[in-house]
Predict the structure.
Amino acid sequence: MDRELFNQRGKKSFRQKLRSDQTEAEKLLWFQLRDRRLDGWKFRRQQGVGPFIVDFYCPEAKLVVELDGDSHFEPGAQDKDVHRETFLNDNGLRVLRFTNLDVYDSIDSVVDIIRQNLS
């Protein structure tokens, strides 16, 4: 894995804190993705990618899964999300975004969409 892009050392403790302070939606989705439960695909949580930390990342598929909580709907947040997604796309990664409500209301549909984007 390229240290220039992935998991830069300076953010290690912050990534660890995010893993220990997961939202309920992140916990629910992580249960579905961890230990290669989704058709054998390996996912990592709170993966550093450049200056950003993404919620979930599948290295084999170069797929990022982001869960948007309330803070993503505040003024200015959409511009930050566009900047972040552009950076990820420019580095060859595909991004799927879901709201926390999507996970709470229809986790099976969320998992199906992720599955469809893995191949």
In short: Residues 24 and 36 are 20 Å apart (CA to CA).
